[in-house]
Amino acid sequence: MIQVEHISKRYGDHVAVDDLSFTVEKGQIYGFLGPNGAGKSTTMNIMTGYIAASSGTVKINGFDILREPEKAKKCIGYLPEIPPLYTDMTVYEFLLFVAELKKVPGRERKDQVEEIMDKVQLTDVERRLIRNLSKGYKQRVGLAQALIGYPDVLILDEPMVGLDPKQILEMRDLIKELSREHTILLSSHILSEVSAVCDHIMIISKGQLAASGSPEELQERMQAKAELEVTVLGKKEKAEEVLRDMDGIESCTIEPSEEADSIKIRLCTSGNTDIRREVSVALSGAGMPILSMSRLEKSLEDIFLELTENAEPEDGEEIEPEDEEYEKEDMTEADDENLEHESSNSDEAENAESGQKDTECGKEESKQ
């Protein structure tokens, strides 16, 4: 479905993406994780043809994103981190406009827009101006524009950012429903949501792929040592004596427990050895009743932090910088208005200051 082969992106001396390769299979939800500045958004922009890679290739359904851009982009629906919305339009007007841009045949536009609005639950607000919608609804409108044209692939950059817990749950359910008809690649900093939604997770660090696999595969791969936490009734000295000569234990720490007359034992074993049965028999046989026993496993957060440790950019280092020409071309009308407004304020301030000086001079001459 998507083939990314040895792509790199450089901005001067800064390497945003470094020889990155991966494949996205049809009909799955892929999670794209990484710290700020790791290259996630740059990679997504390259995959959608928004910017060109310094080297490497991206193919969507077999079409090269640079050599056959129109065919490749017909297969993609893209939701950037900030949804590309015209806020002076109503929801219905905007989606019809997007359908025209995507060259949806005129006789199909109305039905397709209505069907997509119903799918993402926008029918109740279709006649409202986008500027008056909540953050959650604006995100839905952004997702709806990505769905126009029924693309095979959806690329979603931080689709849950800024949403409240209820909206996050709604977006999670919506993404799961869309995965029945689309292959989805999403980036997110909400690790628990990625774990709950995605079939496959890719962790990127310093522009390179640090790990790839299902949440279960990543946990198993990163679980180099098994940890066991046991709470028992008894004394520390007796527990140390029982566990001292037991095979398979690499380290053992014992500390007081919150429960009266009990201690908490944390055992670390080599590899993925399961010694729960042996520990249970040994402690019970020594007259130390077990109150609780649990096997500690690394969460997705633990794996993410371990793989991206020291990956944060240094102070003063630019994060995914843009070319100056690119920034100038992408300047919006709002930016122009802001610049004119600032210039106008500056002129008014200068005129006021000049008038104040003239008044003061006039007062001094009057006194003389």
Architecture overview:
The protein is of the alpha/beta class and 368 residues long. The chain contains 13 helices and 14 strands. The strands form 3 sheets. The chain has a 6-stranded mixed β-sheet, with helices on both faces. A 4-stranded antiparallel β-sheet has the order 2-1-4-5. Strands 12-13-11-14 form a 4-stranded antiparallel β-sheet, with helices on one face. The C terminus is likely disordered.
Give the structure's gist in a few sentences.
The chain has helices at residues 40-47, 69-73, 91-101, 106-119, 135-147, 165-178, 191-197, 215-222, 236-243, 276-285, 300-307, 324-329, 333-367, and strands at residues 2-11, 14-24, 29-33, 55-60, 63-64, 76-79, 153-157, 183-187, 200-205, 208-213, 225-233, 249-256, 262-270, 290-296.
List the helices and strands and how they pair.
Blueprint: E1 2-11, E2 14-24, E3 29-33, H1 40-47, E4 55-60, E5 63-64, H2 69-73, E6 76-79, H3 91-101, H4 106-119, H5 135-147, E7 153-157, H6 165-178, E8 183-187, H7 191-197, E9 200-205, E10 208-213, H8 215-222, E11 225-233, H9 236-243, E12 249-256, E13 262-270, H10 276-285, E14 290-296, H11 300-307, H12 324-329, H13 333-367
Parallel strand pairs: 3-8, 3-9, 6-7, 7-8
Antiparallel strand pairs: 1-2, 1-4, 4-5, 9-10, 11-13, 11-14, 12-13
Low-confidence stretches are 312-346, 356-368
Biggest sheet details: 6 strands, mixed
Gyration radius, to the nearest Å? Answer: 29 Å
Instruction: Give the overall silhouette.
Output: elongated
Tell me how many strands there are: 14
Mean pLDDT: 81
Oligomerization category of the chains in this entry = single chain
Structural class: alpha/beta
- In DSSP terms, counting alpha (H) and pi (I) runs of 4 or more, how many helices? 13
Proportion of residues in β-strands: 25-35%
Helical amount = 25-40%
Order of helices and strands: EEEHEEHEHHHEHEHEEHEHEEHEHHH
| Physical arrangement of strands within the biggest beta sheet | 6-7-8-3-9-10
